[in-house]
Amino acid sequence: MKLHKQVKFDPKDSIIHFKKMSKEEEKPLVSKPGIMFDLVLAVAFFLFMRNVLVPHVPSEDPLAVTIVSSMTAFCMTGVFWIATNMLRVTWVDYSRRQKK
């Protein structure tokens, strides 16, 4: 029979120390204008993708075509939204590191 070693959790070991940023690096990774710009891009992407997906829906009912293409475009827009936000955060972080 194999005995397992017991590991005790010490809360003091789990403290994460953050160093304070200097005044010139106060630019946040995510800003309200950036989110609004990404939102406008996401709405435009949704409308574009909905129109692109209409011919690919295997139905003759216009309501079904609209619903299915909109639902698919909505999922793709969610991925687009996450990608644009990740790209924006990466650019801001990259520009911060370039200044150092």
User: What class would the helix/strand composition place it in?
Assistant: mainly alpha
Would you report the number of β strands?
A: 0
Please tell me the overall pLDDT. Answer: 84
Number of helices: 2
Give an overview in words.
The chain is mostly helical. The protein has one domain. Helices cover 60% and strands 0% of the residues. It is built from two helices and no strands. It has helices at residues 32-53, 62-99. The model has no long low-confidence stretch (mean pLDDT 84).
Question: What are the salient characteristics of this protein?
Answer:
mainly alpha, 100 residues, flat
Topology:
Elements: H1 32-53, H2 62-99
Concise summary:
The protein is an all-alpha fold and 100 residues long. The chain contains 2 helices and no strands.
